Amino acid sequence: MAVTGNSVVTTQGINTSQAICTAAKTTYNDATNAVLLFTAGANGAVVYSVKAVPRATVTATQCQLFRSPDSGTTLYFENAATMAAYTMAATTSPTVTDFGYSETVVLRLEANERLYAGAGVALAGGIVFSAQGEDL
């Protein structure tokens, strides 16, 4: 839907996505080992949840969020959250790492802007990142 400047734009649809990071992302100025997490719609998007959870035993690690206005050519370090160390067991639940976004504290994305995820340490089982938002 094309929009006109200074017009009220309402949500056009829910946008949810997931990504799995297995390789360590140790650089903050390129796309090496970053995984595409979320792509905003044609009129932009508001993201109100980004979370990460390990799929295996993990040491404390930095979970990273990058944004890209140009389809992944350039990545900008946007946010990070520390995932607590956790030993995977069938009788316990890992702590979900939350990046702090909510329906009242949103991350606004431009048209077709992308979010990429990264993990500070390699984890063969992977860290699952989940994003929820609404396309405008």
Class per helix and strand makeup:
mainly beta
Amount of beta strand: 35-45%
Ranges where pLDDT stays below 50 over 5 or more residues in a row are none
Oligomer: single chain
**How confident is the prediction overall: mean pLDDT?**
92
Rg, alpha carbons: 16 Å
Distance between the first and last residues' Cα = 9 Å
Question: How would you characterize the overall build of this protein?
Answer:
- It is a single chain.
- The chain is mainly beta.
- The protein is built from no helices and 9 strands.
- Strands 1, 3, 6, 7 and 9 form a 5-stranded antiparallel beta sheet that branches. The chain has a 4-stranded antiparallel beta sheet with strand order 2-8-4-5, with no helix packed on it.
- The radius of gyration is 16 Å and the shape is globular.
Tag the structure with descriptive keywords.
mainly beta, 4-stranded antiparallel sheet, 136 residues, Jelly Rolls, 9 strands, 0% helix, 5-stranded antiparallel sheet
Compact overview of the structure:
The chain has 136 residues and is an all-beta fold. The protein has strands spanning 13-21, 35-39, 45-54, 61-68, 76-83, 97-98, 107-109, 114-119, 127-135.
